[in-house]
Design goal:
The structure is a single chain. The protein has helices at 23-30, 39-53, 70-78, 88-96, 113-122, 132-144, 183-192, 213-231, 257-270, 284-287, 320-324, 411-414, and strands at residues 9-12, 15-18, 21-22, 34-38, 58-63, 82-85, 104-106, 126-129, 149-156, 178-179, 196-202, 238-240, 277-280, 291-301, 308-311, 330-332, 342-346, 355-361, 369-372, 393-398, 401-406. It folds into two domains: 9-38 and 288-414, Lyase, Ornithine Decarboxylase, Chain A, domain 1 (Beta Barrel); 107-282, TIM Barrel (Alpha-Beta Barrel). It is globular. Helix 2 (39-53) runs parallel beside helix 9 (257-270). It is α/β, with parallel strands linked by helices and 423 residues long. The strands form three sheets. Strands 4, 14, 15, 16, 17, 18, 19, 20 and 21 form a nine-stranded mixed β-sheet that branches. It has an eight-stranded parallel β-barrel with strand order 5-6-7-8-9-11-12-13, surrounded by five helices. The chain is built from twelve helices and 21 strands. Bound molecules: ligand LLP. Residues 63, 66, 84, 107, 167, 204, 207-208, 242-245, 281-285, 320, 324, 378 line the site of ligand LLP.
Length: 423
């Protein structure tokens, strides 16, 4: 059986392993639902980015929102990465994990003044600003703190990334970025404001992108702007092309990161911009296929119209299927011989939308441990406590070594900040 995604995930005999570790054994030892990440898979996903960018000024800023576990951030920090953050909370995580604030870019359409102050104090490298209103507030906050905020404007290149509407961000109708037509004027304004220093330009056109063309289109639009902005007298140091490279969940065939970057750099050089520093903000492509969610089969409910396989993980653990109708592979961690009936794999949460996979051919019995694949990105970070369910534990494996990188939440953890009325 071929599995989508990671070469670090494979059956040894009948037993699915991530790197050198049996997933069923991990589920038995640590309980389910359980997220398990491969450290080597993450580093292997980073390598083509670094290889393609070697020899020129660059920074790979891992997008923390994809998976913000401290051990994951530490892995990327130790490998030389910077970080793309979207909140003060993510900044705190990066610092706690040992990340270098001077390699942090702060994105997001709604940064608060408190977050701006926190980031200035930490000394982040740059703010990716999304509107004139935000520029003015940032300038005020920086001036009051006696600091200068380095800024890059996120421009909206108005290209269609050809991905799910919820995760497509580079079209005119999106809330993100400064419209292409207003970019030059907005840069002029930024250059006038006392608390700011313009340093770069940035765009991010969407997520789970599986083609090179939208990136090249966006790059051309960005380079047009760089030329116009510099002609207006505002120098641009770096170009940040965002994240968005897709992964294989089923049969998608996204370009390899080094192939994509090779084409982008060739275009940058051909247009005479080869001296500029280049930044990327990959999230999913670094961690998505490095992680699985393990869940135990609790009950089989064969029915007239549908067969339901009720597992102990739910939409609160993994929201992507319920939220985007995302298809994520589900396999049994122990191979069984014989027929594989078709099941809807559903969780215990009281919502019909609580499913992890529909119409899946699976040879399963109660007590089996299933693995939802490609769950390393936007899995745990989007988990909630709906139905007062504690969030899953998280493990990191490296070869045959296993570390618990987050304990399972207990019920008392979930209401410890709440208070009964005084009576
Ligand atoms: N930079 C910015 C400004 C972003 O907004 C994002 C993702 C990234 C970088 C990283 O993009 P990536 O390389 O991971 O595609 N929850 C959705 C994905 C939302 C992505 C939001 N922005 C999902 O589960 O598919």
């Amino acid at each position: 059986m071929t599995l989508p995604g990671s070469p670090f995930l494979a059956y040894r005999g009948d037993d699915l392993h991530l790197e050198g570790v049996s997933l069923k054994a991990l589920a038995q030892a640590h309980g389910t639902p359980l997220y398990v990440y491969s450290r080597q898979a993450m580093l292997a996903a980073l390598a083509p980015y670094q290889k393609a960018l070697a020899g020129r000024p660059h920074l790979v800023c891992y997008a923390v929102k994809a998976n913000s576990n401290l051990a994951v951030l530490q892995t990327f920090a130790e490998a030389g990465c910077g970080f793309d953050i979207v909140s003060g909370g993510e900044l705190a995580r990066v610092l706690a994990a040992g990340g270098d604030p001077a390699k942090v870019v702060f994105s997001g359409v709604g940064k608060t003044r408190a977050e701006m102050r926190q980031a200035l104090e930490a000394g982040v490298r740059c703010f990716n600003v999304e509107s004139t209103a935000e520029l003015e507030v940032l300038s005020e906050v920086a001036a009051a703190a006696g600091r200068t905020a380095q800024v890059s404007l996120r421009v909206n290149p108005d290209v269609d990334a050809g991905t799910h509407p919820y995760i497509s961000t580079g079209l005119k109708g999106n809330k993100f970025g400064v419209a292409h037509e207003q970019a030059v004027a907005t840069y002029r304004r930024a250059a006038e404001l006392p608390g700011l220093a313009v340093t770069g330009i940035d765009c991010h056109i969407g997520s789970q992108i599986t083609e090179v063309a939208p990136y090249l289109d966006a790059l051309d639009r960005v380079l047009d702007l760089v030329e116009a902005i510099e002609a207006a007298g505002v120098p641009i140091h770096h170009i940040d092309l965002g994240g968005g490279l897709g992964i294989t969940y089923t049969d998608e065939a996204p370009p390899a990161a080094d192939a994509l970057i090779g084409q982008l750099l060739a275009r940058i050089d051909a247009r005479g911009h080869g001296h500029r520093e280049v930044l990327f903000e990959p999230g999913r492509s670094l961690v998505g296929n490095a992680g699985v969610l393990l869940t135990e089969v609790m009950y089989l409910k064969p029915g007239e119209q549908k067969n339901f396989c009720v597992v102990d993980a739910a939409m609160n653990d993994l929201a992507r299927p319920a939220l985007y109708e995302a298809w994520m592979a589900i396999v049994n961690t122990s191979v069984r011989q014989g027929d594989a009936p078709v099941w809807d794999v559903v969780g215990p949460v009281c919502e019909s939308g609580d499913w992890l996979g529909r119409d899946r051919a699976l040879n399963v019995q109660a007590g089996d441990v299933l693995a939802v694949l490609s769950a390393g990105a936007y899995g745990m970070t989007m988990a909630s406590n709906y139905n007062t369910r504690g969030r899953a534990a998280e493990l990191m494996v490296d070869g045959e070594q296993v570390w618990v990188v987050r304990e399972r939440e207990q019920a008392a953890d979930l209401f410890k900040l709440e208070k009964r009325l005084p009576r």
